[in-house]
Amino acid sequence: MKKIMTSKKAEGYIDVVVGIFALMMVLVVTLNIYSFFTLKQDMDEICGQLIETATFNGCFDSEFEERVGSLQAQFFDFDVRTDAEEYYNATYERVQLGDRMDVYVSVRTYVQGLGMFRIPVTVTSHRSGISEKYWK
Question: Is residue 123 assigned to a domain?
Fold first, then answer.
């Protein structure tokens, strides 16, 4: 490296600039991967708390929606989709004891640090649980 830098030819300087540029791009990609891992961890935590609320109540009701709102205020804005194996009462989205309930959380974000290029990425998390409430 010292030999390249002490050389009077411009080739050495170009090699160093290209090497630094490549190193910075690797650093940007590494930081993006780290940010996606932390985002995924947060989403798994959010999904776990939401499925716990839904399974305890046995439905996706106003209490579930309040929990979504409080988690959005605590973390970040995200989209929630719910589903169930079978609804006992589809109007109130009630799920009978022992039936599966699913919560999907997704966030649309972008790969950062690539200048004018914006690469969209959707990160999704999913959790399932069993309803703990018996509806008469």
Answer: yes
